[in-house]
Structure formats: structure tokens, C-alpha cells
Specification:
480 residues; alpha/beta; Arc Repressor Mutant, subunit A; Aspartate Aminotransferase, domain 1; Aspartate Aminotransferase, domain 2
């Protein structure tokens, strides 16, 4: 790769070269530690004498902008860079909409949540040590072999047929979803599936209904696409369907494990939701994000399996069962929107990387996914049981568990007055990560409580962490 230098004419070549290199270094465009081309090579590239380049390097070295290393070459001095911000236009035509995006509050933003706390009840995360790296490595090698046998061209927007077939078999077996490979679309995580479905349904000003409290990234996504989002309150049976407003075009729900409270939607409420969607002509997005992990009672039917009118788009993810950084999800789409969503996928990013698709197809078809889920289920069940025991015992004076049968987070509501932000702040000082339920409320009045994820905390650490929470509550004298 050639160094970008643009010399004009045949006069003052050394000065031009000096000014451009100095500007590149001081602006940060030429990063600290970067090796510059040898004088002979750069001279040939620029069509100047080698002496011109050598003299320029010498001046920059004298200015402490370059440093020479015997036997290695000439490098930009790490102490010399002074990056400057790019000038901003004085009047940007799109300034208002840019500001709206910039000011969006993202309560689940990784940078805000990923800390170094010793005991962390963060939701939606798992301990990487449980991931079967050896099995995944073998599947990745298989994917490389498969990739080497195919032509170097773009793949299908909806995903590799082998992976779509594997996903269809998996969700039919584990969740009773009625689907075939032809109805499955592979996405970069569940968030992209949400984006694709919503972008083919939403126009500026149209109505979208979702649970309140609910999943903020979904709400912000809908609003960013111009939707008028209504937060529909939930009770012990899930979303209060009778409060879905007239004119609603899209309904977003988490019926198997309501996010963030955790209770499942009752069968009667599911039937009512499907009936309401039919009257409205609305599509329902069923986000089934972590119901593979079920601990009590009989498995409930997915909403999609109860749908006889083609109104439910079933969205799932492998972020919770495998690794979030794999960015692999899927959507089982009703016929009415399938072709449109595939077009949106192709226009968005053409297709999900095929290497990871081949690996996941192999991983699922060989039974590795089900084995991994069974192993994790045993671990999560023990953690869940321990947390429940503590909140039914010495933490019961302050908190009450919200009934939940699946997933790997629990919600606890305050039974008495507790300053939750203060509790969270003090807990962090003793290496315990707690998370407030308040940011998940939209239009409904927030109820005081905590979201407790148990995927990322070791089983043996739970009692130690909750001992510290109890001690803080006793010290600040709240609620009792």
C-alpha cells in the first residue's frame, strides 16, 4: 500500500513533502508507531530524488515527529501525535434528526454495563466458560472447508438452506413452532430481525403497541423509524390486550418470559391477543429470547403455533444460548411479509456471514446445541433456586419475587420503600452489580424493583453477593 502524498508541480518538492507528512502526523491521520516507507521506495513512488525524501525524514526527526530504529526503519514518534477533531459544519440540514439519534438513551448499551465487578447480576449475559469451544472449533473448521468449495460470490439474503433447515427443525422440536426452512430468515442477532420486520411495516406516524415495562431497544428502534409507540401495561397474565389502541399496525410482545418482569402470558391472554391482532390487521412480533431454559410446569405453546391467520412473526436468537458476539438470530415469517423482509435484508447487508452460518448449521445438526442447552439448564436452575431461596428468606422483608418459569433473569419488586438508586450505588462499592427496573418503563409509572440476571455470576458467588446486599439494606435502615 502506498503512502498518500500529493505533490504539485516540480517546485518546492521537499517543502511540500515536509508539510504533508507533518500535517498527517499532527492530525493523527498517520498514527503513532506507523512505519514510513524506506526513502528509496517513497522516492520511487513520488518520482523525486532519494535525497529529497531523506532530508525530509531528517527534518521531521529533528522536530521529534519521527524516530529511526537501526535495522527496522523510520517510525512515527508515539509522543508526537496531537489528533484534532474534524471541523463541524456550521449549519447541517439534518442537524435535528442527527441530534435525536445522538441523544437516545440506551439502558442496555454494553459499554454502560460491562464492568469489572466481582459479583454481577447483569441480565442477558452468560459466563463464557460454559461455551463448548472445542465443538464450535470443529464446526468452524467444517465451515472453512465448505466455504472453500463454493464460488466466491454473495449468498442468499434469507440465509444458507442448510442453516434454515436446521433452525426449522430446532424450533419445531423445542418450541412447537410451525415452520419450514422456506419460512426462516437468518439475521445478525434478534435485533436485526426486529429491524427488518418493522421497517417493512412501519411508516412515519403509524401506531405500534408494546409491553410497558418492556424491551427498550425494540421501542427505540420503532420510534427511530417514525412510529407512534404506545406502552401497554402488563399484569400477572401479561399484556393487557384490551388497552391496545385502535389503528395499531404492529404489536411487540415477549409472551414466554415477559421482559423484564419475567411472568409468562396466560393462554387466555394469548388467545385474546391473536383475536385483537386479527381485528386490527396487525402483525405480532413474538420475541422468544430465552425460553429454551424452562424450570417449572409444562411448556407453553409459542404464540406462533396458536396463530391460524398468519399474523405472528416469531423471532429468536442464539445470543442467549451460545455467545452474543456471534450475532446470530432468525425470524420465522408469515407469508404476508416474508418476501418483503427478504428484500429488506438484502438491501440492508445482503446476507449474514456464511462462515458462521455453516458452523451453526453443523453445530445444530449434530445435536451440539441441545447438549449445550441441557448443560446450561442444569447450571442456571441451581442459580435460580438459590436466588429464590434468599429472596424468600432473609431478603423477603424488602423484596418480592415476580413469578417466572423460564429464562435466566428474575425480577424482584420492592415490598417497602427502598431507595433503589442508592442501593445500587452502594452495592457497586462492594463489587456487586445490581440493575434498576425503572429504565424499562415507558409511559407506565415505574415500580421500584431490581432485575437480577444469573447467567454471568458463578453459583458459589450468589450467597456472598446477596449477603452484601442484605447488609447494605440493614445499614441504611430502609424498609424495616
Amino acid at each position: 500500500m502506498e503512502l498518500h502524498i500529493n505533490l504539485q508541480g516540480r517546485k518546492d518538492l521537499a517543502e511540500q513533502l515536509y508539510r504533508q507528512l507533518r500535517e498527517g502526523i499532527e492530525s493523527g491521520r498517520l498514527a503513532a508507531g506507523t512505519q514510513l516507507p524506506p526513502t528509496r521506495l517513497l522516492a520511487e513512488q513520488l518520482g523525486v530524488s532519494r535525497k529529497t525524501v531523506a532530508d525530509t525524514y531528517a527534518r521531521l526527526t529533528y522536530d521529534n515527529l519521527l524516530t529511526g530504529k537501526v535495522g527496522s526503519g523510520t517510525f512515527i514518534n508515539a509522543r508526537s501525535t496531537n489528533p484534532t477533531r474534524q471541523a463541524q459544519p456550521s449549519s447541517l440540514a439534518s442537524a435535528a434528526v442527527v441530534e435525536l439519534w445522538r441523544e437516545m438513551q440506551l439502558p442496555l448499551r454494553p459499554a454502560a454495563m460491562a464492568g469489572t465487578l466481582r459479583y454481577d447480576f447483569i441480565g442477558g449475559a452468560s459466563i463464557k466458560s460454559h461455551f463448548p469451544f472445542d465443538e464450535w472449533r470443529r464446526c468452524t473448521l467444517h465451515a472453512l472447508r465448505q466455504s472453500s468449495r463454493t464460488q466466491s460470490f454473495y449468498s442468499l439474503a434469507e440465509g444458507l438452506p442448510e442453516l434454515r433447515e436446521a433452525i426449522a427443525r430446532h424450533v419445531s422440536f423445542s418450541r412447537g413452532v410451525r415452520c419450514s426452512a422456506e419460512t426462516v430468515l437468518v439475521s445478525n442477532g434478534a435485533q436485526q430481525a426486529l429491524d427488518l420486520v418493522s421497517r417493512v411495516l412501519i411508516e412515519p406516524g403509524c401506531k405500534v403497541a408494546m409491553e410497558d415495562p418492556g424491551y427498550p431497544p425494540a421501542r427505540l428502534l420503532f420510534m427511530a423509524q417514525g412510529a407512534d409507540v404506545t406502552g401497554v401495561p402488563v399484569d400477572a397474565e401479561g399484556m393487557r390486550v384490551e388497552l391496545i389502541p385502535e389503528g395499531t399496525r404492529l404489536i411487540y410482545v415477549t409472551p414466554s418470559h415477559q421482559f423484564p418482569l419475567g411472568m409468562p402470558m396466560s393462554p387466555a391472554r394469548r388467545e385474546a391477543l391473536l383475536a385483537r391482532a386479527q381485528v386490527l390487521g396487525a402483525i405480532i412480533i413474538e420475541d422468544d429470547y430465552d425460553s429454551e431454559f424452562r424450570y417449572e410446569g409444562r411448556p407453553a405453546d409459542s404464540l406462533q403455533s396458536m396463530d391460524s391467520h398468519g399474523l405472528v412473526a416469531y423471532i429468536g436468537t442464539f445470543s442467549k444460548t451460545l455467545l452474543p458476539e456471534l450475532r446470530l438470530g432468525y425470524a420465522v415469517l408469515p407469508p404476508a411479509i416474508h418476501a418483503a423482509v427478504c428484500v429488506a435484508k438484502q438491501l440492508t447487508d445482503w446476507h449474514t456471514p456464511t462462515l458462521s452460518q455453516w458452523a451453526l448449521a453443523k453445530f445444530i445438526s449434530e445435536g451440539c446445541l441441545l447438549k449445550h442447552i441441557r448443560r446450561c439448564h442444569e447450571v442456571y436452575a441451581a442459580r435460580r433456586e438459590r436466588i429464590q431461596a434468599r429472596f424468600n428468606d432473609d431478603l423477603a422483608p424488602w423484596f418480592e419475587l415476580v413469578p417466572s418459569t423460564a429464562g435466566y433473569h428474575l425480577a424482584v419488586m420492592c415490598k417497602v420503600a427502598v431507595d433503589v438508586p442508592l442501593l445500587i450505588s452502594l452495592a457497586r462499592k462492594v463489587e456487586v452489580g445490581l440493575y434498576d427496573l425503572a429504565p424499562f418503563y415507558y409511559q407506565a409509572s415505574p415500580k421500584a424493583g431490581l432485575l437480577l440476571g444469573f447467567g454471568a455470576i458463578e453459583s458459589l458467588d450468589i450467597d456472598t453477593a446477596l449477603d452484601r446486599v442484605r447488609d447494605i439494606l440493614l445499614q441504611i435502615g430502609q424498609g424495616i
